[in-house]
Structure formats: C-alpha cells, structure tokens
Amino acid sequence: MNVIKYRHVMVLASLAMVLSACSTMPSVTKIQKLPDTADAPYDNILVIALLASYTSRKGLERQVVSQLAERGTKSVASTSMMKTTTPMTKENYLAMIDEIGADAVLISRLVDLQTGVAIQDASPEATYNIRPTYYFNVWDVNLTEYIEPPFVGIEGTYVLATQVYSVSIRDAVWAIESTADFEQDISVPRPYLVYLDEATSIVHHLSRDGVIAK
C-alpha cells in the first residue's frame, strides 16, 4: 500500500521576470554608404534612440555605448544627460552635442513593428520525496508540483533605422536599416537580448564601414 500526498505549489508570477527576450541577429540593409568626403572615423559620438519608452531608449543607448567602448570609441548616451521628463527636442540634443564636444551623432529610430500576442502555458516541474514508514512495504511519497501560471507571449518583427550625422558637415553620412524577429514574455520590461543583439550589429557595421576606428 502506498500513501501519496499531493501538494500543489503555485510559483509567483514574478519568476517570469528572469526570462529575457530572444531574438534573431538583425539582418542589415545598407541605406547610405559612407562617402569619401566624410570626416570619419569619429571618436566622440552622442548616441540617441528615438523610441517611445524612456526605458527602451536607455536600454538600447547603453548597449551601443558599451559596444563602442569595447572598440575604443568614446560615446555618450543621451539618456544619461536627461531626466525621464526631459523633452526629446532638437534644442536639447544640440545642447548635448555642445556640452560633450561630439563630432558625430548616432540616431536610431523604430520605423516598423509587426507583433502578435498569445497566452502560453508554462511547463510544470515536480520533485519527489520518498520515505519509508514503520510498516512493511509502505512508503510515504510526497509529490511537489511547481506550476507556473500561463504567461502572455509577444512575438513579431521590427525594423530599426540607424543614421550617423557629422557635426561639422551637419548632414547624414551613413545609414542602415536592421530587421529582426523576436519573442518575449510580455511581463519583461527590458528585453536585454534584443538591445544587445541590435547594438552589436550596429557597432559591427560602424567599424566595418570605417565610421569609427576599427
């Protein structure tokens, strides 16, 4: 005879926060090649992400700045020079350029986004604790099931346009569009991997095309 005790333990929804968005590496299309007349390579860049959410802007800008630093190029994220309530105006960005003495400005903006949303069931996990009793061939079996609640998943495709403007020429000298598919738990406010993949791709092409020092 087996005595089985079931205990169902619901895992808090906050555990879903450990999930990060997963994305494919962006596919890049060249929009504007660096002309011979450009004063590149640039070594002091103001990085601007024109996205609706301050958190998203900050996430992407920080990753681009980090990737540029690894290649020895100085850059500053615009969100590091403003508050969440600071307007994204031309005047404010021009003031930042003057303050840091930037020789170029990198601007990324979302130009297309196609998404779909669906409720997804999480996979349950279980642990067993089996103990003998005082009776012959009788065991006390405790089964603990860890069941995560269903979560809302979002998937889709985005297109991000990135341009580099020369401060001295006062015009765009280089531009790309990157397209990527992504999936994430909608409860995750900061899709870290999306920002990382995008920044890695942008900086790779900046270096390859001679916009920054290799």
Describe this structure in words.
This protein has 214 residues and is an alpha/beta fold. The chain has a single domain, classed as Lipoprotein like domain (Double Stranded RNA Binding Domain), CATH 3.30.160. It has 3 helices and 10 strands; from the N terminus they run ββββαβαβββββα. Strands 2, 3, 4, 5, 6, 9 and 10 form a 7-stranded mixed beta sheet that branches. The chain has a 3-stranded mixed beta sheet with strand order 1-8-7, with no helix packed on it. Helix 1 links the parallel strand 4 and strand 5. Helix 1 crosses helix 3. The N terminus is likely disordered.
> What is the element string, with H for helices and E for strands?
EEEEHEHEEEEEH
Q: How many E strands?
A: 10
CATH topology: Double Stranded RNA Binding Domain
Distance between the termini: 73 Å
**Structural class computed from helices and strand pairing:** alpha/beta
The CATH level-2 architecture is identified as: 2-Layer Sandwich
- Report the β-strand fraction as a percent range: 35-45%
Shape: elongated
CATH superfamily: Lipoprotein like domain
Which SSEs are present, and which pair or pack?
Elements: E1 2-10, E2 22-23, E3 27-32, E4 44-50, H1 54-70, E5 74-77, H2 90-100, E6 104-120, E7 125-132, E8 139-147, E9 151-166, E10 171-185, H3 192-208
Parallel strand pairs: 1-8, 4-5, 4-6
Antiparallel strand pairs: 2-10, 3-10, 6-9, 7-8, 9-10
Helix pairs in contact: 1-3
